[in-house]
Amino acid sequence: MDTYWSLITGAIGLDPAAFRAIQQSDHGLRQALVILLIAGASETLGQSVVLVLNRVSRGRFFLALLLGGLELVLEALVWILSVWILGGILAPARPPFFAAVRVIGLAFAPLVLGVFVFFPYIGPLIGRLLRLWVLLAAVVGISVVFGVAPWLAALIAALGFLGRWLLLRLFGGVGDAVGRWFWRASTGLESPLRSSDPLLSLGPPDGAG
User: Fold this and answer.
1) Is residue 197 one of the residues assigned to a domain?
2) Residue 49: which pLDDT band, with cuts at 50, 70 and 90?
């Protein structure tokens, strides 16, 4: 756990040494995926007020945390794939794909603080700041794994983000279907409660524990 803690705090502090450490670690891929799962679960926990309002059972609540982590892993992999393809064109050499997964996956470490998005009023602002933090960490990680200057790493990160956006535009229907499946699988409900829905009409779902 000390290793995970040092990697997470190093990435949050934008320390290139943390990205080099996970790149050289014998278990770097596993560490990056675990950190992504923790970050996704933390974000989901921060949004857990939606789950509470929908009166989900305890078991489904923890399932939602797990699936939230898996959803972030998939989101990260799409971006990393875009960065790896486009970065290989601009950088002198393209690193192995799983090396990019290790290093850029660690860049999502700031989302471990995603639980704080539950704060009223400032939660959305915290969420946006954390995503910006991830982008800055990714620039550091890309600079390490591709061996390029920070300005070129920033360009690669931006192009990777654009590539991810294009992929989501092309396969947006699939993404929406996956998102709906995640919600149904984790809560047992067809659609989440909106803030405009009357709270007094809520009742516990059948079989809730």
Assistant:
1) no
2) low
